[in-house]
């Protein structure tokens, strides 16, 4: 899981998993982020990151589509905004034919900066491998989860990933709204067998 996604989770605090439908967890102000030697973000760093995100010309959903087009037939497993270098950038991990690719999409120009193989499914731990296999068979895709989360939380998604709660795959989307950061979790429904 990319560090920016982990940072987004740190910003939202300890959040509980909800039922099998869209659940918007109450927002927490980015001011709840601590600074210190424990690796958490300072308020100034949070503010810079969010300001850069708000100014990006490319949305997370657009970056997701760009990354998936780079590998036809791929699906997104993880995406996050990264402004650490002072420029808007989305880091995207897609899965295609048993291979995981990581690419960076420029948040200003929509160009792919880096597009490299990250791992194979066999190189992952059992839980991650099961999550990606469940993602392949789910009706809901990351782009759908992001759209639902943005509507539910009335904001723009800054990160999205997969989580496993009691053996169930969940999409975890972090949304920037006027009230702060919100975490929305969705449980994808498997495709019906015919």
CATH topology: Nuclear Transport Factor 2, Chain: A
Binned, the helix content reads 25-40%
CATH class: Alpha Beta
Uncertain runs = 1-38
Order of secondary-structure elements: HEHHEEEEHHEEE
Instruction: Give the overall silhouette.
Output: globular
Please give the order of strands in the largest beta sheet.
1-8-7-6-2-3-4-5
Count of the domains: 1
Largest sheet: 8 strands, antiparallel
Oligomer: single chain
Cα-to-Cα separation, first versus last residue: 34 Å
Mean pLDDT: 78
- Per DSSP E runs of 2 or more residues, the count of β-strands stands at 8
Percent of residues in beta strands: 25-35%
Helix/strand structural class: alpha+beta
Describe the 3D structure.
It is a single chain. With 194 residues, the chain is an alpha+beta fold. It has one domain (3-186): Nuclear Transport Factor 2, Chain: A (Roll). Helix content is 30%, strand content 32%. It has five helices and eight strands. It has an eight-stranded antiparallel sheet with strand order 1-8-7-6-2-3-4-5, sandwiched between helices. A hairpin with a 2-residue loop joins strand 3 (89-96) and strand 4 (99-106). Helix 3 (60-70) runs antiparallel to helix 5 (142-153). The longest helix has 13 residues, at 43-55. The radius of gyration is 16 Å and the shape is globular. The termini are far apart.
